């Protein structure tokens, strides 16, 4: 009896210990994969956040496998951050930074009787540069702005020039932007017009910190003449713009853990807001996947996030996450 108890206890502890060991092994592998290094006390905190995110991801994915969700999550490089930390770090689109200055703003006019394609992906036409990484800087607005200007410049000049976000971060404060503390795409387009150009990525590389303006007019990669706003909250107008103009800058509510840890599938977040927008991204197309309409969206968090840096966001679902609330593109 005693021997049995000892054996039982050994087995129980063995199991518990084995589980803990596996978790520790996975924690180490995850840290290696994402080049994470923590100081003594932080290791503990980060691991417990990571474990609670792991719980969230595993539960969500099990439900997704059972058909209860249309998207899956993964333990990406943001899996050691709480939702609050993540939002604080990433918040880059801020409507209250909108200035009262006179801007070269136009309204998108829809053409009647235009038959739109069922699927659009501007990457196939050479309009879109590689996925970039904004790092720990609230400069999403700059990446969204360069993305749509890269597309419009390609459309006109048949040359895909990667453009400088750092140029916008450092130099567009007069138009109301605040570098790594946030900004607006339209104000970036306005800066480019007033400045008569934006530098290429190569000539003015990204640093992910606020710095002095070092714009040089011999290394301009593109310019614009103002910008066009698409009718707010109108997904049909946005669809026409994406189909006929090219990649469009959009602002979204990206404040949810489901976005932070998104992996693949058509993103659907019932708690998403149409008006509390905090992230600037780029709509490069749209389509339908297993009966679900989606927007194809380029993010600026590196290729490790989502589907090689992209996300399929719900389309025609009451302007979910506000994707059609503040959409615009530069005029070239
Ligand atoms: C948005 O900008 C305003 C004005 O600078 C600032 O007071 C506010 O804290 C910002 N909001 C966020 C979420 O960063």
Automatic annotation (TrEMBL):
Tell me the ranges covered by the Cathepsin propeptide inhibitor domain, including all copies: 27-86
- Tell me which Gene Ontology terms the entry assigns under biological process: proteolysis
- Domain Peptidase C1A papain C-terminal: start-end pairs: 116-331
Q: Which keywords does the record carry?
A: Disulfide bond, Hydrolase, Protease, Signal, Thiol protease, Zymogen
Q: Does the keyword Hydrolase apply?
A: yes
Note the PANTHER family from the entry: CYSTEINE PROTEASE FAMILY C1-RELATED (PTHR12411)
Q: What is this protein called?
A: Cathepsin L
- Provide the species name: Didymodactylos carnosus
